[in-house]
Amino acid sequence: MPFESLGGLAAVAGLLGLCVGSFLNVVIHRLPKMMEQEWHAQCADLRGETPSTAAAPLSLARPRSRCPSCGHQITALENIPIISYLLLRGRCSNCATPISPRYPIVEAVTALLSAYALWHFGPTFQAGGALVLIWALIALTVIDFDTQLLPDSITLPLLWLGLALNLAGTYVDVHSAVIGAMAGYLTLWSVYWLFKLATGKEGMGYGDFKLLAALGAWLGWQMLPAIILLSSVVGAVVGIGLIVFSRHKRNTPIPFGPYLAAAGIIALFWGPQLTRSYLGLMT
User: What is the DSSP code (8-state) at residue 176?
Assistant: First the structure.
């Protein structure tokens, strides 16, 4: 495809990524709250109580976004990705409460990675699948940072979608995808139990198992060593940095999901090259 055409498609993907990034901010903010509401309702049901109606049911669509400080309803003009944040100078238009810079950062990262995915894979099914994978991993990353949760409502559909795409060999053959899903789950499951038997503590959550299983389903078992190595190295560096520079206590848990997600994105784009380099060093 001509350079100009591919660049134009990448730009369109970037604009789409901006819009999706804005929606991901809603998912990141609301999905954990929706899960909490559901847990409270389930607990009330088990106790034989009538679920409380004090809090209005929350969904990704309703109610409309509001300022958490003053309740000002955010208008369409105030919700334009990145631009609205800059025009409002990072503050609520009604009460001037600062808005977290995380919102435009999520939008910008989603846009950049979306544009690069289209540039890297071209106008193919691989590019379409890569966009979905990237968007899901961005949402999981920030949710895990905030709550140390990796929602099943994202990880499990991601796993099945990876297997479905690879029925046609979109990224790897289906045998590699199935083995990757099983090996991804069992690898971290084994680490979890070995650590728990040795220390009596839980070193990670079950969501990490499911996320690595999903990455194995998308990229095949061949990519698992690179993903585990990359995520462990990045996690160790960030963890040490937090302890040294941010007075992060040693006993305070550090979520592992964001590092798995980052390693998965790296493997999506450059996995084969990294694997060849790694094997070259071993020989």
Answer: H
